[in-house]
Amino acid sequence: EMRIAYIAQHAFFHLEKHLHKTPTQYIMWRFAGNEDKEGLDLINKEAEEKEEKEDVIKYFLDFTEGIELKMCYSLDEERKAVKPESILNRRTLKKEKTKLYEVKWKDHSIENIMWVKREILLKMGATKLVQRQDEKEAIIAGLLSKTLTTKDIEKHFGDFGIDQEQANHTLIKSLSGGQKVKVVLAASLWQNPHIVILDEPTNYLDRDGLGALTKAIEEFKGGVIIISHNKEFTNAVTQEKWIMEKGQLRREGESINTSTDTKQ
To answer: Where does the record place the Chromo domain (predicted)?
Structure first.
């Protein structure tokens, strides 16, 4: 699965809530329980907006022969409609190219836990639960090479120029602008994403911060998508540009693969 990291133009806003934490404490808080708490805020907001616009289809549990999830067609069946309370696990049906989610139903015992297809859960209005489980699975896949321990976090910050003293003993409020940029980038890349999206990344950055950002982009081995009005910055760090001007979209340049082990 592709993992994507999105860094908003107000990325420092997130750090403002954690000025009295050290960078290590921030990482431990943000990714505790194999969930990205910053990412969950975005998921919850998008899911709520989507659920408000969509009509929810009701399903009920039929116990006639074992247990089966069926769509409601009558008022009597709608009175027995169930709602997902939580998702416990996920697995993939490769032949059918779909995913199943292990669901615990509200007001039902654990004996009625069952596997449900993704499409059905979305129809039931469980978008938030589905996306949250997807996010958790993506994080687990991205963290196979490291754990949420002080040792691994120190090593991760070290790759971004944040030394052990700064990571473990310096409060975020005491860091320079450039160091804060490094903390934001390190946190966003903790999951080992394949693609990083930077939304107006040069906003609110001093020269130190801009230099740190440029260096991080150059060294990142995955794909980088930048949304920016800063032509000088984008010209310096990108090979391909899509420019929207007066309602017209045009392309300049071409992306290149800088991987040394890729055959041309």
So the answer is: 80-138
- What CA dihedral angle connects 72, 134, 105 and 77, to 10 degrees? 0
Which is more confident, 70 or 94?
A: 70
pLDDT tens digits, one per residue of 164-190: 999 999 999 999 877 888 898 888 888
Alpha-carbon gap, residue 228 to 153, rounded angstroms: 30
Q: Which fold has domain 56-133?
A: OB fold (Dihydrolipoamide Acetyltransferase, E2P) (2.40.50)
Q: Is the pTM of this model over 0.85?
A: no
Cα–Cα distance measured from residue 118 to residue 181, given in angstroms and rounded to the nearest whole number? 37
Tokens coding 238? 């990108």
Give 254's Cβ-side CA count (13 Å radius).
2
Question: Count of residues for the chain?
Answer: 264
Cα separations in angstroms, 167 against 11, 22, 24, 48: 19, 6, 5, 36
Q: Domain 4-31+148-253 belongs to what architecture?
A: 3-Layer(aba) Sandwich (3.40)
